[in-house]
Specification:
This protein is mainly alpha-helical. It has a domain at about 20-130: Methane Monooxygenase Hydroxylase, Chain G, domain 1. It has helices spanning about 5-10, 20-80, 85-165.
C-alpha cells in the first residue's frame, strides 16, 4: 500500500509513559510528509514531461516519415527534369535529411536526460526512505531501552516494598 503525505501527517502514534516529545514526532512526521509530497509532485511533473516529449517525438517521427515520402516522390519526379532541377532537388533532400536527423537526435538526447533525472530522483527518494527508516529504528531502540529500564525500576521498587514489609 502506497503511503501519501496525508497518510503520514494523519498517522497517530501510541502514547507511552516515557515516550517521545509529541511536538518533535509531529515535526518529523510533517517533514517526512512534506518531503514525500515534494518528491511525488516532482515525479508527477517529470512523468507528464516524459509523456509530452513522447508525443512530440511521435509527431517528429511522423514528420520524418512524411519528409522521407516527400523525398522519394521528389526523386522520382527529378528523374524527368533537367540536370539543374536534379541538382536543386538533391540539395533540398540533403537539407531535409540533416534537419530530420538533428531533430531526432535532439529528441533522443532529451529523453535520455529525463531518464537520468528520474533515476536521480528515485535514488534520492530511496536514500530519504533509508534515512527515515534508520531514524525510526534508532528511536524504536531507545523506546525499547527505556521500557526495559522502567520494568527493572518497577521490579526494584517491588523488591524494596517487599523488604520493608518484612
Amino acid at each position: 500500500m502506497k503511503k501519501t503525505a496525508m497518510d503520514i501527517r494523519e498517522h497517530k502514534l501510541k502514547k507511552a509513559l516515557r515516550g517521545y516529545d509529541m511536538e518533535e514526532v509531529d515535526s518529523l512526521k510533517h517533514m517526512a510528509a512534506d518531503a514525500l509530497a515534494e518528491l511525488t509532485g516532482e515525479n508527477a511533473k517529470l512523468s507528464d514531461e516524459i509523456h509530452e516529449l513522447k508525443k512530440k517525438l511521435t509527431v517528429r517521427i511522423k514528420r520524418e516519415e512524411a519528409v522521407k515520402k516527400a523525398i522519394s516522390t521528389a526523386q522520382k519526379m527529378a528523374e524527368g527534369l533537367k540536370v539543374s532541377a536534379e541538382k536543386e532537388a538533391e540539395l533540398i533532400v540533403g537539407k531535409a535529411e540533416l534537419d530530420a536527423e538533428a531533430l531526432a537526435g535532439q529528441s533522443v538526447r532529451r529523453v535520455d536526460e529525463l531518464r537520468s533525472e528520474i533515476m536521480g530522483l528515485k535514488k534520492q527518494r530511496m536514500e530519504l526512505e533509508k534515512s527515515i527508516r534508520a531514524s525510526i529504528d534508532y528511536h524504536t531502540g531507545l523506546l525499547d531501552l527505556t521500557s526495559e529500564e522502567s520494568r527493572k525500576s518497577d521490579e526494584e521498587l517491588e523488591k524494596l516494598k517487599f523488604l520493608r514489609r518484612k
